[in-house]
Amino acid sequence: MTILEDFFAKAIPSKAEILLLSPFIFIYVLLVAILVCYLKKFRNVRTPYTRKIFHFLIFTTASIFQYRFGLSLVVLFGIIVSLFVLAAVVAGEGFVFYEAMARQTDSPHRTLFILIPLFTTALGGVLINIFFPGFSFIGYLVGGWGDAVGEPVGTRWGKHRYAVPSLLGVPAQRSVEGSAAVILVSTMVAFAGLYLAGYPVPMAFGTALACGIGGGAVEAISNHGLDNLTIQVAAAGIAHVILT
Fold it and tell me: Distance between alpha carbon 223 and the CA centroid of its chain, in Å?
């Protein structure tokens, strides 16, 4: 069996999974969407925060599904999440879920900067499950926690800013403070994941530190909109190289 054949064999949900689990996954994603909509509409939480709360919860859930149940459930989960996001895009500006996802700073391409990260997230998940399947959950964790913390920390405390490459001419900046937060949180969550997966503390910590630094460095230089892809691949790849 080739690598791709093995990937597709693991990735395609069974009929039983689709029929039995889709309703529960749908309800869960609906609750997450309601949460960020509530925060945006009734608590006036800024979009950089509501967007990252959604990001954090989705990636974390994907990591748990991957480690506990396998890739097929992650694929089913990803399809349902994508349908929610695409529905928000179709509804467009003014729809509360859209506004919870679409940053004003991405104008005039707010919709594209919802769709591009959606695509790059899926592509990152595919690549790490093809090339580093044993550590895909680390890619999800670092992508979900590390990347999620960078923008809010930079928005709130970032004083030392630097420009990063962007797409479609939308100017983008990150901050040293945000990048440091990415490294710190990525290291912590990668360590937790590896430790819970049964790796000894010294091995888990050393690998997590490498994943955190590597993921943070890649996130710092990645094009605006592409870091969901690069940070997943970097973290899972580093863990694979060290531990296999």
Answer: 15
